[in-house]
Amino acid sequence: MLAKAGPALFLGIELAVDQIRATIVDESLELVGIESVDFDSELPEYQTQGGIFTTPGDAYTTPVEMWIKGLDTLLQKLHRSYDLGRIKCIGGAAQHAIVWWKSTTIPSLSSLDPHVPLHAHFPVTSFSLPNTPVAQDTSSHSHAIGIEGLMGGPDSMARRVGTCANDSLVAAQLLRVRETWPQDVWARTGRLQLASAFLASLICGKWIPMGEADACASGMWVHSANPAANGQGHWEEGILDIVGGSREEGRRVRGWLGDVDVSGGGRRAGNVSRYLVDRYGFDPETVVTPFMSDYLSSYLSLCPSPSDAVLSFGPMDALLTPAQHYNPTRLFNLYPHPAQDPSEKRRYIAVLRSINGDVPRALVRDMYTKSWSAFDRLVAIVPPGGSIGLDDKLFSFWFLSSDSHPFQHVKGIYRFETGIKATEFRDLRANPRCLIESQVMSFRVRWAKMLATGVLGSRKSTTATPTPTPPPTNSRPISASLGVTFDPYDHSTLPTRIICTGAAANFPSISNLVGDVFNAPIYIPTTQVDSAQVAPHRNSPAPGYPSRAALGAAYVARWVWGKQSQWALGGSGGLAYEDEIRRLLGKRWVVSGQTPLKTNIGGQTTKALSTGSGSGTNTPFGGPRGIGNTVFREEEEEELLLDADGVPKSPTVPFTLSVPSLFPRLRTQTGSTADTVTSGSSGPTASTAFTTPDLSLSGVVPNTPTPLTPVTALPTGDNEQQLGLAKVAEADVDAFMSYAALVPEFCRLEGMLVKAVV
């Protein structure tokens, strides 16, 4: 246990899908402590897999009682290992999910018996919906589309509430519960809380309203900057009436949701509860900040600059970037910055999402390579576009779940060779690379469209990288000549630096490909780089390593405490969040003699030799269960590629490789993988907090896998090292030009899918 007396400490708590985690930092933001509770292994009585239940109909739910028991266990671990009386401020983050409280009397949060654990105060009977849908749930897709239609379409809805239809909308999940669940679930409900506000309420011992960023993600909130709001944010009555089914029920839903905290997140939400003071020894003066969604907390932990972008890989991939103006459209989601003071100029975060993230990657691994090491090597050595030739490039689009606009009605796997739809590529080895290219290029195209709306302000790069010379054209603008709305050869409007998180970023080939498509250096948090040496296939951090969401919550706690201290002394409250975090880390860098930030507390520092079926079960980045895990089958195994009739055949090889021994035999799609294609699904949310269903095949005993060799740090500048970032890939202007040449055809094919031409 840490000494009873000592410097101030700051606690960040993250309620993720698979775990509940805690990170402690000191005043200089140095890592001091880490604890976690794994729901599957430490609370086995709930029988979850990756913290969730899966049911037919793309439904993914989780027991709320398990969250509370997990919080009990986490606080007990912290109490045994640390002096919680030194904690000066607590921040928090949680997955995007709803808690359905019953309307019946429940124990007062402010007068709980400290001799009784929290989960005994709030048993399963406290909730009208004991197992709540998580953000991964896609069963409310049709309800989201229905709400969008009744609001006048995606443009009209986005102008009103800042977002168009997506499966994770609280509004869509509420509507689904009313229409498809037993009527008594709706009738017995008395209060609704997002998981972030629910967690904050348990810590504070009083009801805490949701933050404005979370409200904007609900699909029911009109932001104060919206001209229709007249300067005052409010719940959208039209959508409430749709959700409730009548004006009266809409007003009832409004009462369930309660008020929204529009302070900006820079002020205290309250103090720690008397229950936690008496039971675990917290200081009664400990401040509690407003809690937020986990993907926003992860974003804050990276402290991005105005010209940066954060690419978060996970079950749902997301690209986040600072935005200067509130200009919502159907092209992206726009949220108020969750850590700003009301006195600051309003700032926002623009988010591009793709539901189809980890699941297609895991499916392609299972279908074509059998291991992540082989997947990474194929992505690395196959040429851009899947072929050396200039006119026979390959494209693929993997929509295992319908995505947000404009892909609401697109579902399936689509491949194209020489512009013509193909059932399968002639060379199966192109599939991993073409999948990753499609996922990353989609973000690159959507970035250009988002930039054109003006929401990001001016994004002209000031770097010294020379602008490539595009192919010669006539006097028309190059975008018109190529049939696109932007110049794909102009990298000056792209991010000058991309910070990647999530297990996919641990793959050297994927990090390099992102840098090529965006012509930007790629950085990864040093905590993730070191964690990847232990467990490269997991979105969740290895034991002893902090999660980004918990770390971001601790950073916010330190920032809010500093502001409170300055206000107490009559000061102005200090700097904006990012400026203050950079100041603290810069000061620590100097005082410590340029010592890098700690990346773990007692964590393993050598790579695990086996990453088989038991590793990373909470994400698809573990070895697939029941499937061979070797990089590729050895020649002597006589494992032939089969055609549709089961007749052996040889793959066509459109390009020559210098390492032919890598590819002695390949396997095409089998019956079991075909079943996986139709059943695989994923839901939205970024972040390390989400899990993905196991897409394994069956009937084959796994072999010892060849571990993936994850990314390692390149020489990194002091500014990035201070923030705990490591460069893992450089920009390559020649590679960027190669991808710029593919953009027009990519856009044409994507447009054909949207228009249902193919």
Please describe what this structure looks like.
- By secondary structure, the protein is of the alpha+beta class.
- It has two domains: 9-290, ATPase, nucleotide binding domain (Nucleotidyltransferase, domain 5), CATH 3.30.420.40; 354-466 and 487-544 and 604-754, no CATH class.
- The protein has 24 helices and 28 strands.
- Strands 1, 2, 3, 6, 14, 15 and 16 form a seven-stranded mixed sheet that branches. It has a seven-stranded mixed sheet with strand order 19-20-18-17-24-25-28.
- Strand 4 and strand 5 (59-63) form a beta hairpin.
- Helix 6 runs parallel beside helix 10, helix 10 crosses helix 11 and helix 15 (372-381) crosses helix 16.
- It is globular.
- The protein starts with 8 loop residues before the first strand and ends with a helix.
- Mean pLDDT is 84; it is low at 607-702.
- Keywords: Kinase, Transferase.
- Residues 601-620 have a biased composition (Polar residues).
- InterPro entries: ATPase_NBD.
Secondary structure elements and their pairing?
Blueprint: E1 9-15, E2 19-26, E3 31-38, H1 39-42, E4 53-55, E5 59-63, H2 64-81, E6 87-94, E7 98-102, H3 118-121, E8 131-133, H4 141-150, H5 154-161, H6 170-180, H7 183-188, E9 189-194, H8 195-204, E10 210-211, H9 212-216, E11 221-222, E12 234-235, H10 237-244, H11 247-257, E13 260-261, E14 270-271, H12 274-280, E15 287-288, E16 292-293, H13 294-302, E17 308-312, E18 317-323, E19 333-336, E20 348-354, H14 358-369, H15 372-381, E21 394-399, E22 412-417, E23 420-422, H16 431-452, H17 478-482, E24 497-501, H18 508-518, E25 522-525, H19 526-532, H20 548-568, H21 577-591, E26 641-642, E27 648-649, H22 671-679, H23 718-722, E28 725-729, H24 733-754
Parallel strand pairs: 1-6, 6-15, 6-16, 10-13, 17-24, 24-25
Antiparallel strand pairs: 1-2, 2-3, 4-5, 5-8, 7-9, 11-12, 14-15, 17-18, 18-20, 19-20, 21-22, 22-23, 25-28, 26-27
Helix pairs in contact: 4-6, 6-10, 10-11, 13-20, 14-16, 15-16, 15-18, 16-18, 16-24, 18-24
